[in-house]
Automatic annotation (TrEMBL):
Family: Belongs to the azoreductase type 1 family.
Keyword Signal: no
Sites where the protein binds FMN: 17-19, 102-105
UniProt cross-references to PANTHER family, sorted A to Z: FMN-DEPENDENT NADH-AZOREDUCTASE 1 (PTHR43741), FMN-DEPENDENT NADH:QUINONE OXIDOREDUCTASE (PTHR43741:SF7)
Cofactor(s) this protein cannot do without: FMN
Cofactor note: Binds 1 FMN per subunit.
Keyword Isomerase: no
Domain of life: Bacteria
Name assigned to this protein: FMN dependent NADH:quinone oxidoreductase
Keywords: Flavoprotein, FMN, NAD, Oxidoreductase
């Protein structure tokens, strides 16, 4: 049985979000094709994802300097322990499905914060004499990204820093099986055309779900 983290980074619902609409159809098709797998939904707008603030940085520095966990302040303990739980959950999973819009050419801040929590030396990668080495080989990723214009190709492609950023981070972790579904161009089309773009992406997502 595989464990899938279904990671969504949009504050609205599938009726209002193109990315969530496609993600919902994907995960339902995946459930149907893989009834024995465990799917864990992480709605990043509802999860407690601590920022790398002064409490976190000071707490980590104290631990590196030899202090025990009990010697941290209450705020440091709470945030450091939560970050540890988040990255451990991530490492334990077998597959990852990220669902997000592209805002200002980038992933939403909550997804960047989550990515920070999973980028921990000794957990998802390590430093060696030959340079950094990813520790999550053999895992799989799908990223469903929606954007108002077309960024996966064409003249705006150099501005795309959502999927390109996330995929590079995940490759740094050692993950090589990374796939994307782009729901794009919906803001520059008529409502009818935008609906067609979404339906095409949903059909693609259902096909990917059968083999993911």
């Amino acid at each position: 049985m595989a464990t899938v983290l279904y990671i969504t980074a949009h504050p609205l619902d599938p009726q209002s979000s193109y990315s969530l609409a496609v993600g919902k159809e994907f995960i339902e098709a995946y459930h149907e094709a893989n009834p024995g797998d465990k799917v864990v939904h992480l709605d990043l707008y509802k999860e407690n994802i601590p920022q790398f603030d002064a409490d976190v940085l000071r707490g980590w520095e104290k631990l590196r300097s030899g202090s025990s966990f009990d010697q941290l302040t209450d705020a440091e303990k709470s945030k450091v322990a939560r970050l540890e739980a988040v990255v451990d959950q991530f490492v334990a999973a077998d597959k990852y499905v990220y669902v997000s819009p592209m805002w200002n050419f980038m992933i939403p801040p909550v997804l960047k914060a989550y990515t920070d929590t999973t980028s921990i030396p000794g957990k998802t990668f390590r430093y060696t004499e030959n340079g950094p080495e990813g520790l999550l080989t053999g895992k799989k990723v799908l990223h469903i990204q929606a954007s108002g214009s077309v960024y996966s190709e064409g003249p705006l492609a150099p501005l795309e820093m959502g999927y390109s950023y996330l995929s590079k981070v995940l490759q740094f972790y050692g993950i090589q099986s990374i796939e994307a579904i782009f729901v794009e161009g919906t803001a520059i089309k008529s409502q009818e055309q935008a609906s067609a773009i979404k339906e095409k992406a949903i059909a693609h997502a259902k096909e990917v779900a059968k083999r993911f």
